[in-house]
Amino acid sequence: MRKASISLLSHLSRYKLNSFAPLLCRNYVSSPSSPSFSSSPLISPTHLKPCAKTHGLLLKSNQFRTNPVRNMDTLVEKPDQLSSGQGKIQKKSELEKAFDSAMTSEEMLKAFKDMESDFDEKELGFYSWRVGAQLAEEDEDPEKILSFAKRALKVFEKDDQLSSSVIAHVYLIMGSANCRLKRFAGSLGYLNRAYRILDRFEPNDFCDEDFRRMIFPLQSVLAEVKVAIGRTGEALEHLRKCVEFKEEVLGKDSREVGLANRDLAQLYVSYLEFKEALPYCLKALEIHKKHLDQNSVDVAYARRLLGVICTGLEEHEKALEQNELSRKIMNNWVQSSDLIHLEILAANVQIGLGNYETAINTLRGVVEMTDEDSMTRASVFISMGKALSNQEKFADSKRCLEIACGILDKKETASPVEVAEAYSKISIQYEKMEEFETAISLLKRPVAFLQKLPQEQPTKGKVNAIIGLLLFWTDKMAEAIPHLELAASILKKCYGPKHLMVGYIYNNLGVAYLVLESRHGCISCPSAAQTLAVAKDIMGESLGSHHVDSITACQNLSTAYAFVGSYGLAIEFLQQVIDGMESYGPSAEDDLRQAHRRLEQLKKKTCSEPLLDKFPVNVFPLRMPYDSY
């Protein structure tokens, strides 16, 4: 998704200023003495086209940004002043022409460096913006992009006559760069600022059709960030808006709209939301058939995706029909990586639906399409191992996972992030087979090479979270706590303090604190109760108070308060647990009975009646939903 979003930025950054000029001034007047963008040949009135709609995007009509009396001096011939200043004016004009003729970021950076000694910071703000946009277009170092964008923003935010849409574009550049650096919390802040500015306008409000395309990358990068931080529902909403804007700008039946519909359908499928995916997939197929040959790869891809959706909707005859049509087309083409990944997605959907044998048969077919030592083949064997494990064919599952590990060993240098995430998936399979030591040893490999990749903090945080949980399962609390603390610290910075995974980590960390507190008879700092209270709030807000994991977190919090003698609070949260359990009906009868027994014990304690049994510290760590991140 990142590549797609950055490429869309090129609709903006490839233009010279004449494409943006209508956004910079209303009456298209060029004042030779105006200090801001004054001598740029790109703003000459001959380059400008009037806009039918402005809606506040443009500057106020007053074009004199300095004292108007001082500006009148330009009408008076002053030979001495002209002769002394002519050299500087000519030099600045030549520097601007050199900058404008630059075609690559390297040429633009050289021209900018030459300009720095002759232009003040206010004038350089505009050129910093253009350099940042060009660097973004060419997918250059995001830190360098940020340095120029920040420099531009510092100037633009002081100019109350500058178009707000220009500032929105700078925010978009900064948000995209932070997303590439996986600084998702910072990225979301800048993108939200851009969104608040642009959300006031309809697509047709913008002066130039090409400028309207800024909406597309904004929605796309917002979706990417929100998927990364677990706010999937909001991410899907951004992609829906992206489809709507493309329909308005490019036409409802354009090829771009077809691809956008297909991407949105596939994201729905990855979250097993088949009903929502169906109309977008059908629309994509309709558009592909209209613009392309019936036997094109895009048509085959859409049909295969439609087959996956029909399977999820249990419309098996329709699924079989679409799969056969897709297979006939694919037999005429060299297998593309996109189609192979779609087959893997189809198999994973079958696993999610419990159709393990169907998934295994699909994956066996995909293996033949992959290169021997490719990451794609490793992914196939990981999925196959998962399906076999769910069938309790553990020996076969382990053989598949071992083959995957053999491939990953050769890829650590070339693809460290993909390898780390693959090791995490493999370790989860060993965890489910209760082979904790094997799972831990596998995860120590990515921990080692991730130390050398400071930009991959989210992956490092997730790996430490898994290690911490595995150490908990093996009753190594003292070792588990540092990993969980590090994971919480990293992911709070990356995703924000209210992210769902942070909630899961805090639950497990609080449980580990409580186990140690009960064993040693002392209160840790921070206490288990404090940590579990944070976990309970995050999970309740993200999942709802009646979700089974939210109920578990609340139950752990009640236990923690009971341990420190805060029986009133313990009763309050245990009552919330009981309310949540009652919503599950007969399936929760045993747990509900135990919770009521616990509640009676706590009430007796508050009345100073002796307890019949000593309070046990029964707490529950939670397996984190890794597959969602």
Structural features:
629 residues, mainly alpha, Serine Threonine Protein Phosphatase 5, Tetratricopeptide repeat, 29 helices, disordered N terminus
Characterization of the model:
The chain has 629 residues and is mainly alpha-helical. Among the domains are: 1-60 and 90-250, Serine Threonine Protein Phosphatase 5, Tetratricopeptide repeat (Alpha Horseshoe); 412-496, Tetratricopeptide repeat domain (Serine Threonine Protein Phosphatase 5, Tetratricopeptide repeat, Alpha Horseshoe), CATH 1.25.40; 510-629, no CATH class. It has helices spanning 2-13, 17-24, 68-72, 79-101, 105-115, 121-137, 142-156, 164-180, 184-198, 209-212, 215-228, 232-250, 255-270, 274-291, 297-312, 316-330, 337-352, 356-367, 375-390, 394-409, 416-432, 436-450, 457-473, 477-495, 500-520, 528-543, 548-563, 567-582, 589-606.
In short:
The chain has 629 residues and is mainly α.
Task: Please describe the topology of this protein.
Layout lengths: L1 H12 L3 H8 L43 H5 L6 H23 L3 H11 L5 H17 L4 H15 L7 H17 L3 H15 L10 H4 L2 H14 L3 H19 L4 H16 L3 H18 L5 H16 L3 H15 L6 H16 L3 H12 L7 H16 L3 H16 L6 H17 L3 H15 L6 H17 L3 H19 L4 H21 L7 H16 L4 H16 L3 H16 L6 H18 L23
